[in-house]
Design goal:
The structure is a single chain. By secondary structure, the chain is mostly helical. It folds into 2 domains: 86 residues, Orthogonal Bundle (Arc Repressor Mutant, subunit A); 80 residues. It is built from 7 helices and 2 strands. It has a two-stranded antiparallel ribbon with strand order 1-2. The protein is elongated. The protein starts with 6 loop residues before the first helix and ends with a helix. 12% of the residues are buried.
Length: 180
């Protein structure tokens, strides 16, 4: 088993670094912060990941004295070390992206006429909706810490850049279709 944390493990361990929590509180924090817009955390996987972190010795649990039916999870010393290593790695190492849109574009010529443009239009609409959600989350975020602002700025810059690129690409491909 790799010593590296998955993105989902890293995200949950990061939330546990703030304070001990149980799964329900983690879900509420994920929802409130709009983390699903930029992490791979499904609601159904929270307890699975917490149990995995616990089995790896990176988190530990104890019964919540206020709610005896719930466990409070917190990072172990090994979890704190793994978290620090993952933070350094996440900030320092660029990860290549393999977006499926590049495969779609490479196979553009084999799609029936009009299908590609319709699909790109659907993608553009979806990106605009995501942009609106992230902008709303940024305005509704209770925290104005510099790193939180940088997180939102990164996401918004990526979204706006892809929308701009997609608009130009659709125009270019539309002109290309007209010439064929």
């Amino acid at each position: 088993m790799s010593d590296e944390l998955t993105n989902a493990e890293y995200a949950l361990l990061g939330l546990l670094m703030e304070h001990p929590s149980h799964g329900y509180d983690l879900e509420r924090t994920i929802q409130t912060r709009g983390m699903r817009e930029w992490t791979e955390l499904a609601f159904s996987s929270i307890y699975f990941i917490l149990n995995k972190l616990e089995k790896r010795g990176l988190a530990e649990s104890r019964r919540d004295p206020a709610k005896r039916t719930r466990k409070l999870y917190s990072p172990t010393p090994a979890g704190r070390v793994a978290f620090q290593t993952a933070t350094e790695r996440a900030l320092a190492i660029p990860h290549p992206l393999y977006p499926s849109i590049l495969l779609g574009l490479s196979n553009w010529q084999w799609a029936p006429p009009g299908v590609g443009m319709k699909a790109l239009g659907t993608r553009l609409d979806a990106l605009q909706e995501i942009l609106e959600r992230v902008e709303a989350a940024r305005h509704g975020a209770p925290v104005t810490l510099p790193h939180v602002n940088a997180l939102f700025d990164y996401s918004l810059t990526q979204l706006r850049s892809e929308i701009e690129w997609l608009t130009r690409t659709m125009q270019l491909l539309g002109e290309s279709d007209e010439q064929d």
